Amino acid sequence: MKLQLQITMNEALYLRDPESSELGKKILKQSVELIYKVGFEAFTFKKLAEEIGTTEAGIYRYFENKHKLLVYLTSWYWGWLEFQISFHTNNISDASIKLKKVIHLLASTVEEHEDTKYINESLLHQIIISEGSKAYLTKQVGEDNKQQFFKPYKDLCAVVGTIILECKPSYKYPKSLASTIIEMAHFQNFFMNNLPALTDFGVTKQEDELIAFLNDLVFASLENAK
Amino acid sequence: MKLQLQITMNEALYLRDPESSELGKKILKQSVELIYKVGFEAFTFKKLAEEIGTTEAGIYRYFENKHKLLVYLTSWYWGWLEFQISFHTNNISDASIKLKKVIHLLASTVEEHEDTKYINESLLHQIIISEGSKAYLTKQVGEDNKQQFFKPYKDLCAVVGTIILECKPSYKYPKSLASTIIEMAHFQNFFMNNLPALTDFGVTKQEDELIAFLNDLVFASLENAK
DNA sequence: TTATAATGATAGTAATACTATCGTTAAAAA
DNA sequence: TTTTTAACGATAGTATTACTATCATTATAA
Question: Residue B188's closest CA among B198, B179, B178?
Answer without folding.
Answer: B198
